[in-house]
Amino acid sequence: MVKLSAELIEQAAQYTNPVRDRELDLRAYKIPVLENLGATLDQFDAIDFSDNEIRKLDGFPLLRRLKTLLMNNNRICRIGENLEHSLSALTELVLTNNNIQELGDLDPLATVKTLTLLSLLRNPVTNKKHYRLYVINKMPQIRVLDFQKVKLKLHAGGGSTAGEEEDGPVTSRCRSDQGWSCVFTAALESLGM
After folding, report:
1. Quick one: pLDDT band at residue 41, thresholds 50, 70, 90?
2. Sequence-separated (6 or more) residues with CB below 8 Å from residue 91
């Protein structure tokens, strides 16, 4: 395992990626902990931490410029609190193939109001009942979840829920005798519409 040091950051590949963002490539170094990221001097729009040994998504200094964080193929099982303070411009977070287990483990991401793309594919949490609805309800600003566009889906009953499922956090606000109109209203409210 390699310690994420200022020297490693200076020696790592830095380039302009295909979408014209400045990117730092820290891929496949077997880094176990996010640390010393102040050495980036907030010069990057994207950082690729794919294929490392990271277990917790935290340890970020103030990085106002960072928009994209690629964290796929790590061992992430916990997400730190207050990411919105250190990553105030984060719009894209790829956490594919990690070890996030429970729906509640995703709650710290709800404070990152700039986040519009989130991938959690190949995490145990994606197998939980009402996973998509939970994420959409907690993070209504998400427009792409697991590389699929998020949209309201109308059901034959004349109502709607956010995502693909018919019951969950949104519908829990409605009594059974209120029907789909209550669900439709609750879904719109949860999406800020």
Report:
1. very high
2. 67, 68, 114, 115, 116, 117
